[in-house]
Design goal:
Order of helices and strands: EEEHHEHEHEEEEEEEHHHEEHEEH
CATH superfamily of the largest domain: Type I PLP-dependent aspartate aminotransferase-like (Major domain)
Radius of gyration: 21 Å
Largest sheet: 7 strands, mixed
Shape: globular
Number of domains: 2
CATH topology of the largest domain: Aspartate Aminotransferase, domain 2
Strand order of the largest sheet: 4-12-11-10-7-5-6
Helix content: 25-40%
Length: 372
Amino acid sequence: MERATGPMVERVFNFSPGPAVLPLSVLEEAQADLLALPGVGSSILEISHRSPAFDRILDDTLQGLKGLLGIGSDHEVVLLQGGASLQFSMVPMNLLRGQSAAADYILTGTWGATAIKEARREGKVHVAWDGAASKHDRLPTAGEISLSPAPAYVHVTSNETIQGVQWKHDPDVGSAPLVCDCSSDFLSRPIDVAKYGLIYACAQKNAGIAGVTVAIIRKDLLERSRDDLPTMLDYRTFVTNGSRPNTPPTFAVYILGLVCRWIRDSMGGLPGMAQHNAAKAKLLYDVLDGSGGFYAGHARPDCRSDMNVTFRLPDEATEKDFLKGAVSRGLVDLKGHRSVGGIRASIYNAMPVEGVQSLRDYMVEFQQARRS
């Protein structure tokens, strides 16, 4: 188990898909600042969102995001609330409403399907590819994607947490604005922001805690937002008001800033973070591949996620025994999503390699015990 400093604290290895594990150093810094921020005398939970102290926190967070992602002057970065679920509606409200063209969606799993449902409320939707025939166990090849003529935008989900498939390259959509739900692999690897019209991500998987959502929007796309939009559903509102049209989730913004600094200073930025995550994932996929089918991965090998390792055991009774034994070893929240069952190990940025090694060792021992 992970050991915190200070008073004796035992932390389990938390494989939850979100809210997810945080870096221990971030938790310790937040704990130290909880009573009073240095030089401020008040807790981060108490300070005004208009105070000079929060001005600095907000600016540091935004600059941290821009630095890590290499965001240029063509894009705005705003912090919102409502999670990716609200973005499923905000994206088409701002980019599709009133457009004659369709929005194209490349459907690779559950969250893409949820996004499509909301987009259809605002305009025409064209499904450019749907992996349902193989239970969303893979991504499309370039030749399988059938875009509509001049789509308003093309939407992809970079990592499907439930099915465990992940894009490892930027899909080619021609001149159409590329929109990406990056919630479950945000800040886990480098991404060429210049290729995207809009990127959105909730923070509670790789970048912080629940309550804050990041949206990175190409400036020219802001012109599509109509004046009849509700104020708080218009991206321009957040750009104009510097992410503070109302009281933002101050603590969540603060944690996001700490995580950005941790990635930069302790993990070698996004290139180092990507290497770290790929190495962790390989530990588990090597067990799957060497198990002779005892552990059956859901995603095809060339589409596997570095964030969510999904697999099944021979039967549900064996899976229940596996989960029970895992908890006894401090390996928690490994149960697969209720819609697909099985096992899901979410190994986001802050999951220490020791946790993944512990799960790997348990998987090997569990299989050996079943064969003896």
